[in-house]
């Protein structure tokens, strides 16, 4: 294994924009939920005339679908990701809309047969309901409660239970907005990080896990973790995910 300083410098300089995790290849592993979201998304996109993907990142997941609807729109609020999504998806005829977190989607009512998202920052159920056509469907994979808690606590110490991502609360919020929830599936997936560069990179990308993270602030913690990794003990954490499928009721006949 390369020197601590080399690994940290490499991870600090690496690009963390978008929602691709290819930089971690050979340095970290994560189990995938059993439903296979990318495959599921592709199946749904191939069957509808219009779709909206919310919080698309750099468009990586949508771009995996071999067939896109005739009208495909994605939203993203992070400016660097917006440019990445336009470069990636623009050639496929996808319209990329830049949004402002917490504000309504700049999109018309009753506009999409399908709304999707992989790991939305904070699902806005009122807006999802508004832009779906009557009878339209929402299919999304959300980050579950206390995901990667072990990694957060390695830096921050013991955390209080609950972080607002409980699937039962999300189901209730979706129903309050007027959606009918058809199915919810949950999964807990093992993560292994094998070098300190992987830890630095993932904390730079998923900034909510350790909000005040910098290498300088947490150097002593990083050195302790590095010692365990060099002794052949990967850092183990667990991600949680839930798949939600909901529909907007059709208009009365």
TrEMBL record:
<keyword id="KW-0808">Transferase</keyword>
<dbReference type="GO" id="GO:0008168">
    <property type="term" value="F:methyltransferase activity"/>
</dbReference>
<protein>
    <submittedName>
        <fullName>Class I SAM-dependent methyltransferase</fullName>
    </submittedName>
</protein>
<dbReference type="InterPro" id="IPR029063">
    <property type="entry name" value="SAM-dependent_MTases_sf"/>
</dbReference>
<keyword id="KW-0489">Methyltransferase</keyword>
<dbReference type="GO" id="GO:0032259">
    <property type="term" value="P:methylation"/>
</dbReference>
<dbReference type="Pfam" id="PF08241">
    <property type="entry name" value="Methyltransf_11"/>
</dbReference>
<dbReference type="InterPro" id="IPR013216">
    <property type="entry name" value="Methyltransf_11"/>
</dbReference>
<feature type="domain" description="Methyltransferase type 11">
    <location>
        <begin position="52"/>
        <end position="139"/>
    </location>
</feature>
<dbReference type="InterPro" id="IPR052939">
    <property type="entry name" value="23S_rRNA_MeTrnsfrase_RlmA"/>
</dbReference>
